[in-house]
Specification:
Blueprint: E1 14-23, E2 26-36, E3 41-45, H1 52-60, E4 67-72, E5 78-81, H2 95-99, H3 107-116, H4 132-144, E6 150-154, H5 162-179, E7 182-186, H6 190-196, E8 199-203, E9 207-211, H7 213-218, H8 220-226, H9 231-234
Length: 254
């Protein structure tokens, strides 16, 4: 797959090739090729221990691979929403104070990020008084302060109930629409993934299959891992975008 466009610049926001990652003596990922283009929503799925979080950590630069190459667009801005963030409940932090760490930011900037995350007007609320859904949106607002070209979310709805989870994913879609950033997320909520993603990557230590939601849901590798329960949902699913990534194999994901 060509890494560079005609003018010599990187063709993708991020491209990973030949990636192998180890956790101790365990090989978490092997031979992974992956790329994400500007503006698309890509979701990574896979069973527990399949290397999903490891792939995200490599992309943001928090984990070094044993082998392989990671290329990022020059000056790429990445916003990251972790699966969980433990904050000492005894700390008297308001939402605005939390967003102002480690550097202070103008009040208008904080208010705009909270509005983009769908929680306007909670600047002065203490963090420990927020619901789980509100706290996740504060984490989203913090990521949006970076004005990201790429927004990365690691199972952002863990611990939320179904309505809260659905509302959060709707907010993510609105963020992509309003800001034009690409979104890369890990999710275990397969029905939501299939309705909200341009492209799906199925991992199990390697790329099992990838492509549009319809293609992945029909792949034998996907059915072996997850069954075929999502196929009925996809009968009603039509997406406006077709990025042409419709391969289901054990090689490329980009």
């Amino acid at each position: 797959m060509p890494l560079l466009s005609g003018n010599g610049s990187l063709k993708y926001l991020v491209e990973v090739s030949g990636l192998t990652v180890k956790a101790g003596n365990h090989t978490a990922l092997s031979g992974v090729d992956f790329a994400i283009s500007a503006g698309e929503i890509v979701t990574i799925i896979g069973p527990n221990g399949s290397g999903k979080t490891s792939l995200l950590r490599v992309i943001i630069g928090a984990l070094k691979p044993v082998s392989g190459k990671v290329q990022r667009l020059e000056n790429l801005s990445i916003g990251y929403v972790p699966q969980k963030l433990h904050i000492d409940p005894t700390l008297p932090l308001t939402a605005a104070r939390f967003l102002g760490l480690p550097k202070r930011r103008p009040k208008a900037e904080l208010a705009a990020a909270l509005a983009q995350a769908g929680v306007s007007g909670i600047e002065n609320r203490p963090l420990q008084g927020l619901s789980g859904g509100q706290f996740q949106r504060v984490l989203l607002a913090r990521a949006l302060l970076e004005k990201p070209d790429l927004l990365i979310l690691d199972e952002p709805t863990t611990g939320l109930d179904q309505p809260g989870s659905a509302a959060f994913y709707q907010q993510i879609a609105a963020v992509r629409r309003d800001l034009g950033c690409a979104i890369l997320m890990v999710s275990h909520e397969l029905h939501v993934v299939m309705s909200a993603s341009d492209r799906v990557i199925c991992l199990n230590g390697h790329v099992c299959c990838h492509g549009t939601p319809e293609v992945v849901a029909s792949a034998p590798e996907y059915r072996e891992l997850f069954g075929s329960g999502t196929l009925g949902t996809l009968a009603l699913y039509r997406h406006d975008h077709d990025h042409g990534h419709d391969d289901c194999d054990h090689t490329h994901a980009g």
